[in-house]
Amino acid sequence: MANEYHTGPIRVEGCAVNDFLLTNHLPPNEAPAVIERDRLLMSARPGFNRKLLPLSIEPESNKIFCGGRYLFDTYENLEAFAHWCKYEFEIDGVLIFDRPDFTEISTRIYRVIGAHDFKDIHSAQIAYRTEIWNSDDKGLEDKLLKLWPALRDRAESENKSSLWLLHNAEAGEVALVTVIDRTGPYSKSDLDYTTLDRAQSAPSYGEEWKWAKKTFDRSHWVYAVWFPNNNHVSDKSPLWPNSPPLPATQAWMNSSSEA
């Protein structure tokens, strides 16, 4: 079966951007197995294209930020997914957003103005930055459609791995997800703060947007990449681009079986 994930335009219409702070309720060594359980259900939803699962650790406080960046083929499938997550996705009698593992939960949905993979999702999407702006510009969608080609070309010229431009007209929000490759050599023992810092410190593509006010700006490692869990794609197994410093499901399962 052909691989769907070539470089080029990403044929999607909807994006969910979820963020939360992890509590101390879930032991870190149990998290990968919980993630895998969720993946099997969430990635089977209609129209699911991918999830980039974010994770970052604030060095000063050791706070752990997580969430999800989801792409869907149509905006209608995205809306259905968001409704399902909020009202129906229940395990052991607990809805996902009511779990004690999470706090400070933020969920947003967007229409995709443009999305493009410049590098292979399987090997070169290691960290990303999410920026969100608020604007009361009434012609915002037309403005963004005109901006997209230049933003896309700039991202390609600056060797980015992927770029998504997003818009929520009702909320007056614009979002950019900028994905980058690894900056230096891969380490099996140390967290890749060099790449994470590079994602955060790069000049923002919206720094000259006088018509918008930035309300969110955070970078994460790509902890895991999810592909659709259905019979129409060849990519089904998740990727763990920053494992083993960030433990993956298989590593957790191996350590559990050896204990």
So, CATH architecture? 2-Layer Sandwich
**Average predicted confidence as pLDDT:** 92
Radius of gyration: 18 Å
Termini separation comes to 38 Å
Task: Give the number of DSSP strands.
Answer: 11
* Largest beta-sheet details: 8 strands, antiparallel, barrel
Give, in spatial order, the strands making up the sheet with the most strands. 2-4-3-11-8-10-9-7
Q: Supply the helix-strand structural class.
A: alpha+beta
Low-confidence stretches: 251-259
Number of domains: 1
Question: Which of globular, elongated, flat, extended, rod-shaped describes the shape?
Answer: globular
Percent in helix: 10-25%
**Would you list the SSEs in sequence order as H and E?**
EEHEEHEEEEHEEHEH
CATH class: Alpha Beta
CATH topology heading: Alpha-Beta Plaits
Textual characterization of the structure:
The protein has 259 residues and is α+β, with helices and mostly antiparallel strands. It has one domain (8-258): Alpha-Beta Plaits. 24% of the residues lie in helices and 34% in strands. It has five helices and eleven strands; from the N terminus they run E-E-H-E-E-H-E-E-E-E-H-E-E-H-E-H. It has an eight-stranded antiparallel beta barrel. A two-stranded antiparallel sheet has the order 5-6. A hairpin with a 4-residue loop joins strand 9 and strand 10. Helix 1 (31-42) crosses helix 5 (249-258). The radius of gyration is 18 Å and the shape is globular. 33% of the residues are buried.
